[in-house]
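Internal ticket #5521
Category: modeling
Description: The requester needs a full-assembly model to guide mutagenesis choices. All entity lines are attached below as received. Residue total reported by intake: 668.
Assigned to: D.W.
Attached entities:
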Amino acid sequence: MPLLEIEDFKVYYRTSEGITQAVDGISFLLGEGQSLGLVGESGCGKTTAVRGIIRVLDKNAFIAGGKVIFNGEDIVGFSEDRMRSIRWKDLSLIPQAAMDSLNPVYPVVDAFNEILLLKGGMNLNSAEKRAKELFLMMGLDPKRLHHYPHEFSGGMKQRAVIALALALNPKLIIADEPVTALDVIVQSQVLMEFKKLREKLKVALIMITHDISVVAQTCNVIAVMYAGKIVEKGTSIDILKNAAHPYTLGLENAFPNLRNPNKSLIAIEGSPPNLVNPPKGCRFAPRCPFKIQDCQQKEPVLKEVSAGHYSACFRLNEIEEIRKKAREVKTWTTVNL
Amino acid sequence: MDNSQSLIEVKDLKKYFTISHNLFRQSSKKSNVLKAVDSVNFKIVRGNSLGLAGESGCGKTTTGKMLLKLYESNGGQYFFNHQDITNLCNKVKIKKFRKEAQLIFQNPFEAINPRFTVKRALMEPLLIYHEGNRKEKEDLVEYMLKKVNLIPSEYYSEKYPHQLSGGQLQRVVIARALITNPIFLVADEPVSMLDVSIRAGVLNLMKKISEEMKLTTLYISHDLSLIRYMCHEIAIMYLGKIVEMGQTDEVIENPRHPYTQALIAAVPILDPEVKNEEVKIKNYVPSPIDLPPGCIFQDRCHIATDICFNAEPKLKKINKNHQVACHVNQK
């Protein structure tokens, strides 16, 4: 039985323009100890999706349907009280800009105490011991527990917040852009430590990022989101080496690669659709150089490309040719927007 | 590199900030000095681009601001087009300089007045610098909008910033910077606020226009892959100093400074089957106030020897296209 099973999950926002279909029917599985990278551009619904799973949504958002089966139970129906009893203990969230999520007027140790005392039912002594242990695990000096957040550097705050998320040994951690604000050296150190720790403690992970290269090194499974839908999912090797969706292929073209200087960057023309009135059919079709008539009328569903590798594209049977063409600049510059 | 070709040349350029720990007594005797930029030397050949890379707080933006004379330097010399403009104070000359040296901002969402239409925003520099009549100015706006691919230009010129996407806004920012026909351009993290699929378009546009207009550019970025894509030369900064500099391909393929090596090793590899090696350097970037003598990188370096704790390494040429400031790897 998988640890987390998301089925046709929908989260919408009420806005002045109408209902925004931010997350519109996504499904994925996550086994115990597995790691999933949720990749996509800003506004594609990746943050909304995970905030919907752990139910810390904005006031104007609501879950419009679907199931979130965590540990065998559908938690969509859970009351707020019940949700509160599983947050931190069973699943915890490292929010976006986690560095700013420590309260600046309390020393860092207070954040640990709050969780360990309130949620973990520990006393002050054992909480302090546990906090020290967590600091050491994340490569921080336990002496600094009593310091204030402003005395920490960005990387140290990030480590502290990761340590916090691990405090009560949850089964699943959701990390929303955990290294985005960090410098590249600190980023690689934090990722490396996080990865080792996760493997040691066998915690499952959902990592959200806009940067494919970050998940290439940390996650075994990748799901690519576009305009509220998962357009492709598979192992990281499937996605990065054998991408089977035009959007994923386009993303890879747009990425500068330090180790491959001869690659010329190709942009995907246009911009993501407005999700109040998403285009009929495939949501990527307006920007897609490979669209056919069907794409603008029917909605593609995820189909298996190879074992465990799914893509939502009508032209999967021609994927070899599409891959070849996707590498040419002229393919992308001649899109009729 | 022939001297006569360089448009930008800085010698021992410095920027120090005084930090007072006492909020109420600014001029307390014990004030600390933060050396944001400490004796940097470089040239940019006319028509070339230099990428300034390094982690946050290394002084790259401060350097860029000094080159635009938005900050006064505390020492050293700055030659622009062979003229020493370090202490330029003649108003007419400053105005001429400002027309020739322009800036592209990091965050396009904040760089344009929200109450201005695109056309009005592009008119602004022309009202200050351009002597032509209204028609000529309008034609120029239209021409620039076409140049940055905001077509049809009549459609975009009437839009307000909130009606445009990030990529379109950044094109407006680029158009505004180029409308005065500058010869030198500073781009401070020009695409870091944009999405990946949009980024490539803006980068390609900048590349194309710089070539067409024969612009000399300084790119400031923490992203080495971007610099490799955009720049002829690269300079790596650490704590206010340039530790390695040279032709981009040469420096990235054959890094000699342990800091550059770490920076490169830290860039995640896109291939899940090839694992990143662990970055060798330790600790964090120290506070730039009261640095110890010797090499600024000493306490994080895994190859430091005695000399590194005593003498400061200078940038030295190791071949025609490559300079490094490291005692151990200079040979």
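Resolution: model delivered.
Comment from assignee: The radius of gyration of chain A is 21 Å.
Ticket closed.
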